[in-house]
Amino acid sequence: MNRQDTAPAPRTAEPVQAVCLGESMAVLLADGPGPLDTVGAFRPSVGGAESNVACALASLGIPSAWISRVGDDGFGRRLTAEVGARGVDTSAVAIDPHRPTGLYLKETGGSGHRGDLGAGSSRLHYYRTGSAASALGPELLTDPAAARLLTAARLLHLSGITAALSDSCLDLVRALLAPEHRRPGTLVSFDLNWRAALWHDRDPGVLRDLLDAADLVLLGADEAEAAFGTGDPQELRALFPSPATLVVKDSGNAVTALTRDGLTVTEPALTVEVVEATGAGDAFAAGYLAGTLRGLDQRSRLRLGHLSAAAALTAHEDHGVPAPAPVLNDLLGASPERWAATSVTAGGIVSPLSTTP
Fold this sequence. Notes:
The chain is built from twelve helices and 19 strands. By secondary structure, the protein is an alpha/beta fold.
């Protein structure tokens, strides 16, 4: 496998702290809302859970890398270049000369046409079967570029999407979670990222062992209900006893962190004027993981996750721009009453005693 000749070097001299591994894709965004048959044109972009997390981590000041595989095509070059331009190390992204880069189209609602999804709603149409990333496998562990990053990282972030792509991808995820390949001091986080369509011809039962082998698990209550039959935080904690921390997201309401030693912390979501929801879960994961790497307490980790998600929710693309560090730090320490009174719009954060651009 080759590397992108034009792959950007890391934009920071600091060593990589977080590695996110998994497929990302080229994206075609409609030039307006409505069913795809009514759209006049599309513009290119990029997206994908793991690269979204890496980009959001980098925007929060955590030196990050993304490991994956792309096709030897324009979409692959664009994808690698755009992720790299966001400050993410892409030195271990391999080029597959035989398989294409995955692609998806984003449909948004609000046009009033027949079959419209409705204002504020979106749907992703995937074309990823046989993609370059689906050929990832355990041999990645012997790749020098990937091994360098994996050995040095404080955090490895995985998701259930990768495990669903192919048998070789599942084998890779299992290998990365195996005790013999775990480096002492490296935290392994796993986001369920349930995609029912990906598991249509595969056994989702493998997810139980994968999640239980991670140190930190993130999952939405709704997706956990679909995958495991319950979205209740306490029932999920009993179902997955091994991870040090389980984070259960009740979309738009609250997020609960449950630790193995019995601590339970729930933090309500902010009031957010949603522009587009895609990427918010990845942004939350990045905020929570950034707080974890910084050694923040559980409540502050959850709040940083909420703030990161709010930035994505108020942006048209998967990535939002986080508020300045002083604003974030101020809100992390805000009283419960002030936190509850804080709202976020595309124009900025509005909080008692302060309004931030």
